[in-house]
Amino acid sequence: MEKLINEFSVGLFFWQAVVFILLLFLLKKFAWGPILNAVNEREQGIKDALDAAQKAKLEMTNLQADNEKLLQEARAERETMLKEAREIKASMIAGAKDEAQAEASKAIAGAQATIEAEKKAAVAELKQTVASLSIDIAEKIVKSELSNKDKQLELVETMLKDANVN
Amino acid sequence: MSAKGPSKDAASSGDSRAERKQQVKDYIAHHLLDSHDFGLFSYTDDVTQEKHHVGFPLPIILWDGGLKVFSSSKFHHGETVAQVDGSYYKIEHAKIYKTDAAGTITYDSANHPTNIAPLDFSITKGVFMILITAFLMFFLFKSLAKSYGNNAGIATGAGRFFEPIITYIRDDIAIANIGEGKYKKYMPFLLTVFFFIWFLNMFGLTPLGVNVTGNIAVTTALALIVFIITTFTGTKDYWKHIFDPLGDGMPWAGKIFIYIILVPIEILGLFIKPFALLIRLYANMTAGHVVLGSLLGLIYIFQNWIGGTLSFGLAFAISLIEILVALLQAYIFTMLAALYFGFASETHEHDQEHDGEIAHL
User: Fold this and answer.
1) Domain residue limits, chain B
2) What pTM was computed for the model?
3) Which of A21, A109, B277, B305 is deepest in the core (most CB within 10 A)?
4) Strands (E), B150-253
């Protein structure tokens, strides 16, 4: 201990204290302050960036969920639309079929009526033709029959005979 | 380093082993002391038997009834008496004493010089190294601070190395011991003291042969600053803890008997803490230099291949350990300073804490 006290140099103590305190204030102003600020700022920046990334990730997840929902909705809509379309198609086909059937039967009915009318007309014409032909024939026969006197008399005779019988 | 350089002396003089041991001992003792010139090494010329010193003189500043400034070359490495303005001075064991023209130094019974020692504010080797370290630190960390500004908040170059250390001191020394809220005002001191001690410790391991942190005056100055900061930043809780450690947890009449012992211990603790700091750093660094010096001295004592090689190997291994110690002692000093600052700036729920303390007692 005595040796220590003996060794103690007031000058060295003085210079050490003065230089150290001076160094402390100079470094505080020119080095530690700026360095610690820069480090703190950077750390804060990193923390903020991480937070932002976390937030972005969360938003992304939300967005993905939204997308999924939208997709599902779209799928469901497509499903219903397809179903509707199918139904419409079916009903349209059915309607068309009915209509066609009706049209066809109507056409057939019209045709049949026309055929009937034509037939009647043809028959009527035939009858008329036959009648006139018969009359013509009868006229010719009568003409030829009655061209001589004997025949006329004979006819009258037969006619009278018939009338007598009656 | 004005003592005999071991290597050359050995070759020239046929000293006995006991004499060589004494020389090594003196050499180490001399190395541990501060000196008034910056000597790198010295040797004795084989032919002329003349002693040569390699180094440079430093300014001597004395207060002896007036300021006296002169170069240490006047002492001729402690071998002659310096005459300045009619007064005579002589260096004896690294201290300057006032003497007469013949350089008489009188000793008392305990072998201490009885001559008057003027106040010595010389720029000694130690002070010179302190200044060098201060300049080095200032420019190093100033440029580091600048590199942050120039590079968008990211350190470049040496900053890559120093930044983790700075953040370590902040996170694991300051915040861990002082707390998130109050650590900031202590940071400049903790950083400065850490790098200051570390750098000076490292300089002590270079062949410059300086032993600044192993000097009691230097460690005393550092510890005194710690003590002053602790005392002046002490909160109400800190002082209450010293003068009324049991708080309101015990009736007044009961406390008084405990306090007769407890309060003096607490007050003593105030001074023991920084004292332990100064002794620890001094002792560790001095011990390192003594061990290294002794191991290197063994080469000189043995003067053979086996002993020399062995000593060198040992000294090399110890040097590696000393590099670790240099860092460790800087860390411990900083750590304990932070711990004391932590005590001083503490504010807490007194009742709760001391409930536990009473149970513990």
Assistant:
1) 50-122, 126-360
2) 0.73
3) B277
4) none
